[in-house]
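Quick one: structure tokens for this chain, please?
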Amino acid sequence: MRALSTDELREKYLHFFEGKGHLRLPSASVVPHGDPTLLFTGAGMVPFKPYFLGRATPPRTRLTTCQRCLRTPDIDHVGHTARHATFFEMLGNFSFGDYFKREAITWAWEFVTQELQLPTDRLWTTVYENDDEAAALWQEIASLPAERIRRLGKADNFWEIGVGPCGPCSEIYLDRGPEFGCGKPTCGPGCDCDRFMEFWNLVFIQFFKNEEGQYLPLERKGIDTGMGLDRMAALLQGVDSIFDIDAVRPIVDKVGELSGHRYKSSASADVSLRVIADHVRGGTFLAMDGVLPSNEGRGYVMRRLIRRAVRHGRLLGLTRPFLADVAAVVVQTMGSAYPQLKEDWPRISQVLRAEEERFQTVLDEGTQLLTQLMDLLHPAPGKPRVLAGEDVFRLYDTYGFPLELTREIAAERGVEIDEAGFQRAMERQRERARAARGQTSYLGGAQDAWARLAERYPSKFVGYETLASRGRVVALAREGAMVDALELGEEGEVVLDVTPFYAEAGGQVADTGTLTGATGQFQVQDVQRPAGQLVVHRGKVVAGRIRLEDEVLASVEPHARHDTARNHTATHLLHQALRTVLGKQVHQAGSLVASDRLRFDFTYPEPLSAEQVARVEELVVDQILANTPVTTREMPLSEALASGAMALFGEKYGQTVRVVEVGDFSRELCGGTHVRRTGEIGPFRILSESGISAGVRRIEAVTGHVAYTLARRDWETIGRLAVALGTDRASVVERVERLQASEREQARQIQELTARLASAAAQELAAQARTVGGVRVLATVVKGVDGAALLTLGDRLQERLGDSVIVLAGVEGDQAQLVTMVSPRLVQLGLDAGRLVREVAGRAGGRGGGRRELGRGAASQVARLPEVLRETADRVVQELEAAGTGAPAAAGVTSKRKE
């Protein structure tokens, strides 16, 4: 076998197939572009699904790639075997109606035996049990004996994805030798042990599976192959596992260096070293491709990878953040193949570091509680210890502790978890949530009826073309029940066969307006689409009555619709402006499009600078001033995605979609209402930028009339300021800055004067202090002094009096500030200024507290203060006289007399 580095193997494969007429394409993102049905790119063919499904035309009928991939179904096996990983690279060659089995098998055999020089006597293949053609080709082309061509069933050697193209597959294995095997007589390709390593899968796309489950032969057959780059590198480099290859071992060794655990010195530690290396690789590439940790979808998978890595770091003794240090090695080892890793390193490291630090706190609290819960378990003899589902749910709900992590930690202690109980608790929470939002499910018991109506009377929406149309009332509902009429003053729901009203969807609020018939009028307050294409108008009868079969004029309130359209188009401009300024990792995470404002949530790991916000706003305004045409087109989903239109993950799209384009600036799948040209948006202004959750930011903005009104109000405010400051608008800021500088200078002078006055006052007040055994006691009222000046005065008095107990009450109007001070030497004897101020404040209608050397408080019964201070001073003096140099227990003093 020819020893090759991972980079050399990748290049050799791609170069080989370029020589066979294939077009080399770069790796697509690990986030499938425009395919909301998939979380991640889990195979080399994923970016080419539209080509295999016949929905788009490939740039060439022969393609080859090295695709970065992420899969998590086998996540629990990672670290325990030589071949399992969540992140990996897949080499592939593809044919779309070009070559078929003979060429695919010929070139595969040529590459592995001539280019890679794998020993032919150790190569095995598998074919689908009924694929005689593939078996015969392997014997003809590779001269493989029949015993080294295994026939396996549909579960192992037939590829299909439901309805659509499918076909049998053939896998190539290398026999690594009996030392890697299980020793079973039946050991061979497909065995779970590590002896026979599958490294290349050839899929022959030759059938189309229809809705009836029939497999119909395809006229244009295809090829989809996948060779695991890491697995083949391990074979060529003669190492035990994919974690020992040149692209991964440095990452493992870095974790070992940070943790003090040398790789292959401890079986249990090795598992954690491998888990961390794999998960950090996956997390690094997810961050590069714009995924941010969250509690759902792709973000949840990323959070799980990071948190599992942190958890295994704890098992190795790593208590300080370490993921960014490990990820830096990922960038070093893979940066030549993926330069974007180096370009995006600052952002990648920040994403990993922030999530790790966030989880450290969760892990500490959750692990402590979980340990306590497991310690309390006392099972019956012969039965396992089981953690209650309610406790598992509490860890999840209160501490954000993932179910998978609870299961993993519990398993280490030999504890099982009641997953059924956890699911019941989760369902109860969902039911509470559904009940809490019950007011939005206004259809109630009519839901099934609406679903049936949607099949019989799907509403025809004409709101893109007009704001008023005639329609027939096909259904009415009141309080969840179908009715024949709605009377004056009654609230209910109306369904029309034709409507111009936009139902709330895609973040855009519903239209409002009226339904006017011959016998009454209905005020539309909300519009929803509860089932299929059924549009339900919710509101109140404001005149006469509305009856089934009435013909009504449906009129949308035009001003609100136009203002909403302004905000919706502005949202598209804002989305693209953010991607232009911040990078392609920005993705929409939610939105609100109303008539008076817009709100746009997007993925980004840090706050935007003022300069970035200004640049985003500027780009939007530039597009508005350009008065760019806004066009809409309906087209097949595959065509829209191939054109680069942005689709939102989690949204469900039909085969035909609506694409909204703003010139060459923005292209999105969208069913909302928009302006005809960007100039109709009018003024645009960003009001705020803030964070709403980890990795998700929010921008709020206004357009049109609201933005104009806001600008006019600000202009008028600046005008009033200019008049008040005796200047013009252009000089307001300069004038305010001069005033602030003058105010700072005055404050400095006041502070200096206060210090002088305090010094003078301290000299006068010091003369009033009483002396007891070398300790000075002063308790007095000072008028016209605020809290800050009172502290300064106390400091000056302490400087003059030396060892002292000082109680000052600064009176301003009907309120008083209190300060008590006890010299450090007296504190050591037991005197406590905090207790002293609490006593004085308590007797004068106030509260106080503080440290033993300094107490502060306030009092409202100013008239009582002279008497309270005099009595307090008397008690302090009496106690000091009685105790000599001791510390009396009265007046906030704790006795320390020796028994």
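The longest strand covers residues 196-209.
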